Sequence to fold (982 residues):
Amino acid sequence: MAEKITPRAQDFSQWYQDVVLGSELADYSPVKGCMVIRPNGYAIWEAIQSDLNRRIKDQGVRNAYFPLFIPESFIKKEAEHVEGFAPQVAVVTYAGGKELEEKLVVRPTSETIINSMFSKWIQSYRDLPLLINQWANVVRWEMRTRLFLRTTEFLWQEGHTCHATHDEAEQFARRMLKVYQEFSEETLAMPVICGIKTESEKFAGALRTYCIEAMMQDKKALQAGTSHNLSTHFAEAFETRYLASDGKLASVHQTSWGVSTRLIGGMVMTHSDDKGLILPPRLAETHVMIIPIYGKDAAENLRVNEHAEKLAESIRKMGNQGPWSAPIQVRIDRDESKKPGWKFHQVELLGVPIRLELGPKDLEKQQAVWLRRDIGTKEFLPLDSIPARVASELPKMQSELLERARAFRIQNTHSVESYEEFKSKLESEGGFFEASWVPDAEVEKRIKDETKATVRCLPYGADFEPQRTSTPCFITGRREGTVKALFARSY
Amino acid sequence: MAEKITPRAQDFSQWYQDVVLGSELADYSPVKGCMVIRPNGYAIWEAIQSDLNRRIKDQGVRNAYFPLFIPESFIKKEAEHVEGFAPQVAVVTYAGGKELEEKLVVRPTSETIINSMFSKWIQSYRDLPLLINQWANVVRWEMRTRLFLRTTEFLWQEGHTCHATHDEAEQFARRMLKVYQEFSEETLAMPVICGIKTESEKFAGALRTYCIEAMMQDKKALQAGTSHNLSTHFAEAFETRYLASDGKLASVHQTSWGVSTRLIGGMVMTHSDDKGLILPPRLAETHVMIIPIYGKDAAENLRVNEHAEKLAESIRKMGNQGPWSAPIQVRIDRDESKKPGWKFHQVELLGVPIRLELGPKDLEKQQAVWLRRDIGTKEFLPLDSIPARVASELPKMQSELLERARAFRIQNTHSVESYEEFKSKLESEGGFFEASWVPDAEVEKRIKDETKATVRCLPYGADFEPQRTSTPCFITGRREGTVKALFARSY
Fold:
């Protein structure tokens, strides 16, 4: 640990890798493209799972588990789906010492295998809606990988639902995107733009894909979650039908939606700094680290420890009440083999929200040294004021991280009226670009080829539809069918 | 649902399948040997995970996640390990549209890939002990599969630890078996025998394997969990070494331990009956189901609903206090399209611990009909007595299920002194057989071939060693080296 972190300004990508490896969130594995999520990183994933799982269940969704392997023929049943995923799949060709009669694809996503079960379980309209989610690993063969952001294997949740009508499915896809937005902003403190993917960027097999897009500190975009209205595409391929109340057989309308361990990378790139991680308190395993300052007098050190323990206990008692409404985890670093300076460094690297120092001189004054990770200014606080301060500071820090990130995004989002302006600002400043645009796959490709920027989404209005604009298309000058579009370079 | 369940006495194996499918715990998938865990089953797995995860973390173990794929060469590094697992692995040979240079094995267990990381992370004695666990899916190609009990893919947790000395590793392997025993008995209400596996039954690569064995209602044994002292076998193969405090480089001593979704099958076969599931209250998603009895008078039905809601609320208030110390989940079945008889049947099939009926006549008498799933005798209880009764009944039912299963096992465990007696009783009565035996792989094989029974374990004494006996070996008559051994037919 405690290795040097490359400053963000010098090399953002190297900074990210230094922070992720240095804080021991993850490590490279001997398997190409696959990462190891180390305990510090997995603790964040557990916090994400626990919070998001509750939100998903609040929508009436139940968890289940479907096979890792998908018969190759299943992947091929939905035409767009196979086209989208075939180049990326890993395939099991022999098992149990024998060549397999039918090859098995390691799931890149589970629409096909899940539909084969839905067809069996759904008989009539009484079985609808059917709302299922699974937490699982998936595999998509990637050439260029990056810890958390793009790995061959990753962990995610994938929701799959069946509804009687198009409208119900559409409503549900929108509702789940809203759940992702709230989760992302409230828990990850990562503000997002909600929108609709263009035809060329939508999920392979979907009618429409909704997404949330976040801005990282290097002003690039990260797609943080997607929710798809699948219409009856998979239902038709797998004959997932129900007997309607009018006695007719109809295909179900479906949605699917997912977020992955990529969120951890997004959270790191949103908040952290040149000293290491900055964790939103809602994701922190340890909220407060007390560092006792030891001297040479053993009796005095004992007294410092006793007061540190007393302080820790009184802070813990503030958990599960007031605006924080969750436990407060406090640890004391009693390791006598390490110097305080090393420990300060370590707490910064690991992103513990609040650090307290307590030495013999502090005890004399009945105070402790207080430092909030993201602000970094020392304060001397009376001991008896600290528990209440922690309880109010954790939600404060949580919302300030969100607002700081939102202010950063707003500051780096530009409205452009011409392609020239767009290209020049993209080069000089980077960021998000809002423009009036006529969606068109060829134009989209040209923009991507020429600038490496892509349409992140068409931000939607109150009606969840692309927002019509009154100015001409920034690139073609066309006046018909212009909508608001968001462009950026992305991960 | 509500299909006919084959009685246990008629065909135990068919009964098990009827219960698991009927209560919608699981279903067969289109992928050979792989099952789907349906929401009712996954809720039980989540309860198991949440409870066991806490117990594992209490031992100082932290969760992490390692790759699904293992380079084929890794599996081959430990000689016994490859011999044990090679026939069972599924292999990815092409991915991303290309033949792979090195084939990838889908993990059957993760000792090898994890050791490759441990070698990187461990430098000195200061890094020890290193205590890691992962919750993951694993794949072992199986010919004969059975829902939950033996499936090609299954979910499990696998712990992997590194220690400085043999003794520390040995202590830790024993401690984790104890954790499994307590978990199994306290949470699954499934009593287990703790013991040591013989050389031929131990884990491929282990020095010694500890196990817990449970008796099912058909008197067969189920291996429910294992904990291995791996000695330095994998550490030597992967050069997982540490600098000891004396400055010398030494291999770490390791353990690994795991339990899987198999526990769900064991729990079902321990408690359930011909009417369906019986769930230990600690695993139940719903503890109390209130079934309002509706008539033709809408106003009266409304009044019944109001009282049902009031009753539910006052029962819920008893959660998180007293001996139960957990939430109490109460549901009301308000479906007016279904008759009470159908609902009673359904609650029995799903194993809800307590069923309450509440109709207009009950309201007049300020009572409700009470029925505990495992006992099945109706009682008429004053409404105001019910909340306290639920709070005391849930822990009571939990411990009675355990004691009933334990009594059943004791009753069906026989001491035998000769092979003839063993064979004859095994045929006529089945069950567990305790005998004085001299461990010997050839004799073991002969017993298995002739009787289909195996040595389940050598039950250990207070010193965690096989218990020496003073009577001759029940099969060879030898007097030297006899120990207590447990034989049974098994899953």
Chain B has three domains: 12-271, 288-393, 414-488. Chain B touches chain A through 54 residues (CB under 8 Å). The longest strand of chain B covers residues 153-163. Residues 145 and 263 of chain B are 15 Å apart (CA to CA).
